[in-house]
Design a protein that fits this description.
Elements: E1 2-6, E2 23-30, H1 34-42, E3 54-64, E4 69-80, E5 83-94, E6 99-104, E7 109-120, E8 126-136, H2 139-168
Antiparallel strand pairs: 1-2, 2-8, 3-4, 4-5, 5-6, 6-7, 7-8
Helix pairs in contact: 1-2
């Protein structure tokens, strides 16, 4: 597994916090079929049961855009201790390209873009490539919450792997 985190911390010049974009990219090989993992990531309603710091997901809409593409709009609440952030996002899962893209559409984030790529590695293994860029719209919120968000995203792929092991059996 490789993890890369590039973020300006609050200890550095606070005004630059909102100007920078935390970028996280995680690549990992997981012993499960890509389509099982794809469907698990697309099952946003189940996130509070296993995704770290995800407190609630409210499904707003789900529709098939085409025979290979599903669009989900949901409101997600994430938090750690007293810090809680709620935002709506649009999730587009495309089976043909084995890609799931997530974009925040409101809330305290200036933007959030996450991409999951599922690359089959034989019949029962998948290389997951997860990347996320985000920026808070408020400097103070960025100073407080960027570390929490970076930590949460850093733990997500491991949480999905543990969940897939429970659902599909360990391989």
């Amino acid at each position: 597994m490789s993890i890369g985190i590039d973020a300006v911390t609050a200890r550095r010049r606070i005004p630059s916090v909102s100007a920078s974009t935390p970028r996280i990219r995680i690549t990992k090989r997981i012993g499960h079929r890509w389509d099982d993992l794809f469907n698990l990531v697309l099952d946003v309603e189940s996130y509070p049961a296993f995704v770290p710091h995800c407190r609630q997901v409210r499904l707003l809409s789900r529709r098939a855009e085409s025979s290979t593409s599903t669009v989900i709009v949901s409101r997600m609440t994430v938090g750690l201790a007293a810090l809680e952030v709620s935002y709506a996002n649009r999730t587009n899962g495309d089976v043909a390209t084995r890609t799931i893209e997530v974009e925040a559409i409101d809330g305290p984030l200036r933007y959030l873009r996450a991409v999951w790529r599922f690359n089959p590695d034989g019949d029962d293994r998948t290389e997951i490539d997860f990347s996320v860029d985000f920026e808070f719209s408020n400097v103070i919120m960025a100073a407080v919450a960027s570390r929490v968000f970076s930590s949460m995203f850093g733990e997500m792929v491991d949480a999905f792997e543990r969940r897939s092991d429970r659902l599909f059996g360990r391989r």
